[in-house]
Amino acid sequence: MQNCNNTNSANLVDLSNIYYTDIFPIKENSSLSTREFLQRVIDICLEFIDESNDRSRPILRYNDPDEMKTKFNFNIGKEPINLEQIVHDCAQALYYQVRTAHPHYFNQLSCGLDIVSLAGEWLTAAANTNMFTYEIAPVFILMEHEVLKKMRHIIGFYDGDSILAPGGAISNLYAVIAARQKMFPEYKSKGLRALPQQLVLFTSEHSHYSIKSAGAVCGFGTDNVIEVPCDERGKMIPSELEKLVKIQYEMGNRPYFVNCTCGTTVLGAFDPINPIADICDKYNLWLHVDAAWGGGLLLSSKQRHKLDHIERAQSVTWNPHKLMGTLLQCSTIHFKQDGLLLETNEMCADYLFQQDKHYDTSYDTGDKVIQCGRHNDIFKLWIMWRSKGDKGYERHIDHLFEMRDYMLKGIKARGDKFHMVLENPECVNVSFWYIPSRLRNVPHDDERIKELGRITPILKARMMQKGTLMISYQPLGDIPNFFRNIISNSGVQKKDVDFLLDELDRLGHDL
Ligand SMILES: Cc1ncc(COP(=O)(O)O)c(C=O)c1O
Q1: Which residues are recorded as modified (N6-(pyridoxal phosphate)lysine) (predicted)?
Q2: What residues form DSSP beta bridges with 472?
Q3: CB distance 234 to 205 below 8 Å
């Protein structure tokens, strides 16, 4: 895929006279041409995977949006297009795609491409089923049942119920609405007027914005999602939470939901579950743990203590598509109480969830969710977990932390070229500034920090233009832009960490 036009090597079949009407499902007995077409597309995918794992190849070929519009033909015309062109389109789309599996891509919480999980995703696409009933997805429904039960046991919920949701943000929304159902069951039929008082949610100032978004979606209003201050490590301060809860009660409002983040998005901090759970018990609040990011630590005996007492929560979000490396998307939400998910969301649609079916309809999941149709996100997780076993997953998590430790050592060894934003991070997030030569011998005061915040996006732009490295950056509260490096790709080795630190210096020393 060095050249996006180069999709037609000598031994490949010519598809220029073949159209969609010449393959399945329109043309019967067209196995040969169907396979030829699919084989060409699979070859492109395989080449992309080879390239993504080749450290000498770029992560991306950057183009500005206006330039990209001139290079890629996005047009859908009136007439059919031959499959040779379609194969070319596939190659071109991947040619310009960022290689998120590249070992020098440290940009998002989801990095890497697990090959067994990919096989699962390909098989899932071939099966192309909907996850609402056992009737049309018997193996996958039972698989979901078993894997979610296993995850609940790992959390410490020995009963309960769970579901796969399209992302951690929606998983958090599920928790907010289930808590509302549990405490104010009249809401479901009567709406907002059934609520006795203004409901109030609490979440740390460093938590994911999806909690605020859930407050908006549910009609509570973002002003009623109260941000609780964090300590210098980014962890919620329980005494501040209690103070804010009391204030809301005094105002005549009804505090009802506390989100405790285990693995914050930027700093990777873990809120202290136990004291927060005590406050929830004292004031009759629902405790949700957002472990979308940090949930993977439950699989490592060395790391799981960071989520001690998670079983005290009423609900837990845990995204396998982040630290566990399952392909996007794969996100779970777990409840301690069985039956609540169904009670919250069931609409009893007669045309799907008939109660007189010839099998045990409790296996039908469709009425537990706010969607109707649901993608099969379980097979890619199940097959990946099955291939690794619990031991392989533990090794995966431990390896990520070893690489994180190697990076922290490497930063220290490079002296004044780096400045940590957070020393001793709890997760695999490493937050730092790169210091160019001219700023190395000056005090780390407000002026230098402001200047570092200004040059961080310039260094990021250089990375992308060169195509050698990707690390994300952001401001956080009063702290101006800094880099947040994520190691969640199991393919990352020490030499990649060395490369990352040295490449930052090559690209940024003169800034
Ligand atoms: C702590 C936390 N919760 C929730 C989410 C949302 O997850 P998703 O992107 O899968 O919706 C994120 C995403 O980064 C996150 O970091």
Answers
A1: 322
A2: 484
A3: no
According to the model, what pLDDT value does residue 1 have? 59
- pLDDT tens, 237-287? 999 999 999 999 999 999 999 999 999 999 999 999 999 999 999 999 999
CATH of domain 385-508: 3.90.1150.170
Give the pLDDT score at 354: 85
From the CA of 436, how far away is ligand 1's center (Å)?
32
| pLDDT digits 0-9 by tens, 116-155 | 999 999 999 999 999 999 999 999 999 999 999 999 999 9
- pLDDT at position 152, please? 98
Ligand 1 mean position to 168 CA, how many Å? 5
SS3 at position 470: strand
Question: Taking a C-beta distance cutoff of 8 angstroms, is the pair 305, 297 a contact?
Answer: no
User: pTM of whole model > 0.90?
Assistant: yes
**Ligand 1 lining (C-beta closer than 6 Å):** 109, 167-169, 208, 210, 261, 263, 265, 290, 292-293, 319, 331
| Burial label, 182 (beta-carbon count in 10 A; 0-12, 13-18, 19+) | middle
Q: What is the CATH code of the structural domain delimited by 130-375?
A: 3.40.640.10
Domain ranges (residues) in the chain:
1-96, 130-375, 385-508
Positions in the chain whose pLDDT score sits under 50: 8-10
pLDDT at position 173, please?
Answer: 98
> Residue 145 C-alpha to ligand 1 middle, in angstroms?
23
| Helices of type H across 53-137 | 65-71, 83-95, 115-127
Work out the number of other CB atoms within 10 angstroms of the CB of residue 73.
12
**210, 261, 321, 323: residue to mutate for ligand 1 pocket, most atoms within 8 A of CB:** 210
